[in-house]
Design a protein that fits this description.
- There is one protein chain.
- The chain is α+β, with helices and mostly antiparallel strands.
- It contains four helices and eight strands; from the N terminus they run βαββββαββααβ.
- Helix content is 25%, strand content 46%.
- Strand 6 and strand 7 form a beta hairpin.
Length: 159
């Protein structure tokens, strides 16, 4: 990382930043070019491995690309604020961001789909006792991103 002074290594701090994000940008490979899609997500750690869950329609370009190549990149960012200066070169931008890579898979098992949807709903509603009908579970695809690498960076106003 070029700006080591902005690197965040504390896993608790990284997870706090993830919890403040509301969108994860997933980078897929489309033949010889990138394909980036913004997604709602849920996050947890399983045996010290970071996991992101996403929901999707049962068909579409995103799923086609994942089936062709399950290796993905991802990005989340939050806490954006412009820092005003007296000259253009004195302006800056405050932020927190996470980037990484991993392997994405399609969750087939019903209990795992329910678990993933609970994680997603918990992220946005802070409630985790949702009920899901069998019909709703078959109407969606659940994606599981197992993170293999992740870095976090922040530039925040000092108080």
């Amino acid at each position: 990382m070029r700006r080591a002074d902005r690197e965040v290594n504390n896993i608790q701090k990284i997870e706090e930043i993830i919890q403040t994000c509301d969108c994860c940008h997933l980078g897929l490979i489309d033949e010889d070019k990138p394909y980036i899609v913004p997604l709602n997500f849920g996050y947890l750690r399983e045996k010290d491995t970071p996991i992101f869950y996403f929901h999707s329609a049962n068909f579409g370009k995103k799923l086609d690309l994942i089936r062709q190549n399950p290796l993905v990149g991802f990005e989340l960012d939050t806490k954006h604020q412009l820092s005003v200066g007296n000259t253009a070169c004195n302006y800056s931008f405050y932020y927190q961001s996470i980037i990484g890579a991993g392997k994405i898979s399609i969750v087939e098992e019903i209990q795992q789909k329910k678990k993933a949807l609970q994680v997603i709903m918990q992220h946005y509603t802070k409630t985790s006792n949702w009920e899901f009908s069998d019909q709703s579970l078959t109407a969606i695809t659940i994606l599981k991103l197992t993170v293999t690498e992740m870095t976090c960076k922040e530039h925040q106003q000092t108080r």
